[in-house]
Amino acid sequence: MRVMIASVMHEANSFAGNFVPFAHFARRGVLHGADIPPAYAGTRTEMAAFMATGADQGWEIVPALVARGTPSGPIDAAGFARIIAMLAEATRAALPVDGVLLALHGAFSSEAEDDGDGAFAATVRAIVGPDVPISITLDPHGNVSDRLAASVNAISAYRTHPHTDHFEAGQRAAGTLARALNGEIAPVVHLARAPLLRGFDACRTTPPDGPMQRAMAQARAMEAADPGVIEVSVQAGYSSADVFQAGASVAVTGNRHDARFDALAAQMVRLAWDERHNETVKMLTAAEAFAEARAVPPGHGPIVIADFGDAPNAGGHGDTTALLALILAAKPPKALVAAIADPSAAEAAQSAGVGGQISITLGGHVAPAQGGGPIPVVARVVSLADGIYVHEGPYTTGVTGDLGASALLDCGGVMVIVTTLARSIFDLAQIRIFGIQPENFDLIAIKVMDAFRAGFAPIMRTAICGETGGTTSRFHVALTYTKLRRPIWPLDPDDVVARHAGYLP
Ligand SMILES: [Zn+2]
User: Fold this and answer.
1) 102 CA to middle of ligand 1, Å?
2) How far is the CA of 475 from the centre of ligand 1 (A)?
3) Residue 153 Cα, ligand 1 centroid: separation in angstroms?
4) Are 128 and 244 found together in one domain?
5) Which of 274, 299, 319 is the last residue of a domain?
6) Which of 128, 177, 295, 484 matches a 20 to 30 Å C-alpha distance to 225?
7) Same structural domain for residues 267 and 318?
């Protein structure tokens, strides 16, 4: 059996205020053919799982394409056309194939196309034909369109957030493909979309138990109760995308089409609706978060303040300064701000060299009105780094990441990491490359959503979640959606949404 494997991934924030060019993807490495296996061998990724299952099954694996960009504004029209063309060419070159495995994200939109993932799956389907099974993985923060569901045979989203199970999701997708290739099953996706812009508590699986753990238990029970249910895949959705399909969904992969699978998907969606008010994270303003951090009794390990409102891992600019300003003014002992994306500050530090002193206006350059503008700072350069690191934590373990040319600055006693690229700090290796140990700090301020909990859990005393009002803010009322399907919670009145969904007469 010849099985094509590919991955195209991006999470596009419609509210970032810009489109990114193809170079955004090329920076992280667009890989073709034989260059793919060595890049993923030994990693905890979907691609590694596809290859491992292929070896077990005796398949001939045909690596086609990997194109991944870190979350940002949507890719521009020319860049999207180029990625579609590359995927089509790689798929044609792979023919003939017996099966296809794709690792997608689910929140890929572009200037030209609101449903990037649906377009990728439909492109591959059109080339391989209707009878070749296609099994995919998704990020549970994906927004699943009808076209995506109809273009593939099976969907396996990650089951953890922070996402520490890329490999396991890849194993499930490949396992389903193996059963299809053996003639044991004929998988078909049954999709139901919830009337929710966000659901399942953003799919958090860190303590305390919440809606996602209950949904996972329900999904596993559905799979156990009916051998025709191949997999129940839960997607919380990605609310920073202004696209029709944004929001929570459930995909039931069943053996052949059957209305009972649609009913199970609808039942899970109803669970999301009933749980919509249950959120396990309390979101504070920058001032509230900082005050709460200062009130934590002395103890061991850093207090972490995570700014969800300017999170590069969800497409934020990573340079807002509302929280930075509070920390610089109060100068708490052993404080680290990691990181502020500021290419000009990073360049000034690189020019001055270690020990040099620089006068800069730090951060807040991209969208000064959102989350705080630039702050004048006199800083000493403590260390420099090229920004390359290898993830040490359980989240994408072994994968190489890049912050761009970066520096650690001493800003009047407060340590601040400045980076060229906007990147969330969620892995301790990203801090260690500056010659410092995160364990030794009392307060660490980062710009990231829940992903940090995996890497920081072993060292942190407590986590406090804040919102500085950047472009990944969840205060949706301030955002203007024009393409999103309506009515939808929480933007429209509960009774209007419930009636439209058939939950009220
Ligand atoms: Zn995600």
Assistant:
1) 16
2) 19
3) 22
4) yes
5) 274
6) 177
7) no
CB 143 within 8 A of CB 241: yes
Given a contact cutoff of 8 angstroms between Cβ atoms, the answer to whether 315 and 474 are in contact is no
Find the CATH number of the domain harbouring 227. Answer: 3.40.50.2300
Given 274, 302, 320, which residue is the final one in a domain? 274
Distance 191 CA to ligand 1 centre (A): 19
Q: Are residues 263 and 292 in the same domain?
A: no
Tell me, in angstroms, the distance from the centre of ligand 1 to residue 9's CA: 11
CA-nearest of 171, 393, 193, 159 to 273 is 193
Between the CA of 298 and the centroid of ligand 1 the distance, in Å, is 33
Measure the CA–CA gap between 40 and 219, rounded to whole angstroms: 30
Spatial strand order in the sheet of 229-235:
187-193, 249-255, 229-235
| Cα distance between residue 152 and residue 39, in whole Å | 26
Q: What is the pLDDT along the chain (505 residues), one digit of tens a residue?
A: 999 999 999 999 998 888 999 999 887 679 999 999 999 998 999 999 999 999 999 999 999 999 999 899 999 999 999 999 999 999 999 999 999 999 999 999 999 999 999 999 999 999 999 999 999 999 999 999 999 999 999 999 999 999 999 999 999 999 999 999 999 999 999 999 999 999 999 999 988 899 999 999 999 999 999 999 999 999 999 999 999 999 999 999 999 999 999 999 999 999 999 999 998 888 899 999 999 999 999 999 999 999 999 999 888 999 999 999 999 999 999 999 999 999 999 999 999 999 999 999 999 999 898 889 999 999 999 999 999 999 998 888 888 899 999 999 999 999 999 999 999 999 999 999 999 999 999 999 999 998 999 999 999 999 999 988 888 887 655 678 999 999 999 999 999 999 999 999 9
163 shares a domain with 132: yes
Quote the ligand 1 centre to 308 CA distance (angstroms). 13
CA 141 – ligand 1 centroid, Å? 4
Paired strand residues for 134: 100
Domain contains 376 = yes
Provide the domain limits for residue 74. Answer: 2-274
In a domain? residue 482 = no
Whether 492 is covered by a domain: the verdict is no
**In angstroms, what is the span from residue 112 Cα to ligand 1's centroid?**
23
Total Cβ atoms within 10 A of residue 437 = 11
DSSP 204-249: --SSSP-HHHHHHHHHHHHHHH-TTEEEEEEE---TT--STT-S-E
CA of 202 to the centre of ligand 1 (A): 9
472 Cα–ligand 1 center, Å = 13
Provide the number of structural domains found in the chain: 2
Q: How far is the CA of 139 from the centre of ligand 1 (A)?
A: 5
**How far away, in angstroms, is 8 Cα from ligand 1 center?**
14
Let me know whether 237 and 339 are in one domain. no
CA of 423 to the centre of ligand 1 (A): 15
